[in-house]
Write a structure and sequence with these properties.
It is a single chain. Helices cover 41% and strands 17% of the residues. The chain is an alpha/beta fold. The longest helix has 13 residues. It has one domain: Rossmann fold (3-Layer(aba) Sandwich), CATH 3.40.50. The strands form two sheets. Strands 2-1-3-4-8-7 form a six-stranded parallel beta sheet, sandwiched between helices. It has a two-stranded antiparallel ribbon with strand order 5-6.
């Protein structure tokens, strides 16, 4: 398994998002982070179990943590960009402390605040390693995906075994091609209804 970010293959976020959605066939909740993360999630095919983060940078992982605690019988995934996660690094310690077995955090790392203008993040400028930070926070099952095959393997493991899990993917700079409709009330209501259904 790959240990450091520089040794990972650069992958495509939209393609990986489609792979995630294709595997989520058992009522898994997916929380898409602000901007490109939720646009790709929308583009991969809307499900009522999807929650699209519209305008609150850095809150995909904390929201997913809350859903995971409230719904211990349901797998919950957060799709979060590196810039957004850097805004809420404290959530990694909280995830480690609460240790929800059903939580999977996928970190998209392109080394930039892509949605706000492409400014470089500390991951690009100073070599900040978000997976190393997750491990140091106490999340033992935190791993970089070396390539698409390893991403698939790590995702399959996370969906089948106790977590919490963090999967890091180094991604390219391709912007999201699908704008999520600005309908937060609609999405909140459909997501709430989906979470009320048993898995």
């Amino acid at each position: 398994m790959t240990e450091t970010r520089p040794n990972t293959e650069v992958m495509n976020r939209a393609a990986l998002t489609r792979r995630i959605v294709a595997r989520c066939t058992r009522g898994e909740a997916i929380v898409g982070g602000i901007g490109n993360s939720n646009w790709d999630l929308w583009g991969a095919g809307h499900r009522e179990e999807n929650f699209y983060m519209l305008g609150s940078m850095g809150l995909a992982a904390p929201i997913a943590l809350g859903v995971a605690i409230a719904q211990p019988g349901r797998r919950v995934l957060a799709l979060e960009g590196d810039g957004s996660l850097l805004m809420q690094l404290g959530c990694l310690s909280t995830i480690a402390e609460r240790a929800p077995r059903n939580l999977i955090l996928v970190v998209w790392d392109n080394g930039s605040y892509q949605i706000t203008g492409g400014q470089g993040t500390p991951a690009a400028r100073a070599g900040t390693d978000l997976i190393a930070i997750a491990r140091a926070s106490g999340i033992a099952k935190a791993q970089w995906a070396a390539d698409e095959a390893e991403f698939d393997a790590l995702l399959a493991e996370a969906l089948a075994t106790d977590g919490p899990h963090v999967i890091g993917a180094r991604i390219d700079q391709e912007p999201g091609r699908n704008q999520t409709p600005r309908e937060p009330v609609r999405f909140a209501m459909s997501f709430t209804a989906a979470m009320a259904r048993p898995v």
